[in-house]
Design brief:
Elements: E1 2-6, H1 8-15, H2 21-34, E2 35-40, H3 41-55, H4 59-70, E3 74-77, H5 81-90, H6 97-108, E4 113-115, E5 128-130
Parallel strand pairs: 1-2, 1-4, 2-3, 4-5
Helix pairs in contact: 1-2, 1-3, 3-4, 5-6
């Protein structure tokens, strides 16, 4: 069993009622059966903000989604002071500081695989980005 870091966009698709919802839930179940899953607080913050701002999903609904679908199954990696130093190196590959913090969390936890549609991560050494 290996590990995979799950990025915000995947969770947003799971939190947004669309016709592709079942596909994302099935893929999440497959990931859970084959991998240990990780994310961090940057992802959860972005999930709450984007769900509310872009999709008009009430914060309470997203918090319930996090409580029922993420926290029981996915480890939340902490952010540490050392992540800032890695961020300074990663910012050359990741134009957004939050993406550099995701890359730092992944590096610290030795998680090379990233489930994300964000192709900015393709430039980051040591990260194997994949999508559905």
């Amino acid at each position: 069993m290996t590990g995979v870091f799950i990025d915000t966009n995947f969770f947003i698709y799971m939190n947004t009622p669309t016709k592709t919802l079942d596909k994302f839930i099935e893929h999440y179940e497959m990931e859970l059966s084959n991998n240990r899953t990780f994310t961090n607080m940057i992802v959860l913050d972005e999930l709450i903000c984007v769900s509310k701002k872009k999709y008009s999903i009430p914060v309470e609904v997203t918090l319930e989604f996090i409580d029922s679908m993420i926290l029981p199954f996915t480890s939340i990696l902490p952010l540490e002071e050392g992540d800032y130093h890695v961020l300074k190196d990663m910012i050359h590959y990741c134009p957004k500081p939050r993406d550099a913090l995701i890359a730092s969390s992944m590096r610290r936890a030795s998680v090379p695989d990233l489930l994300s549609e964000d192709n900015d991560f393709d430039k980051v050494p040591g990260i194997n980005r994949r999508w559905l």
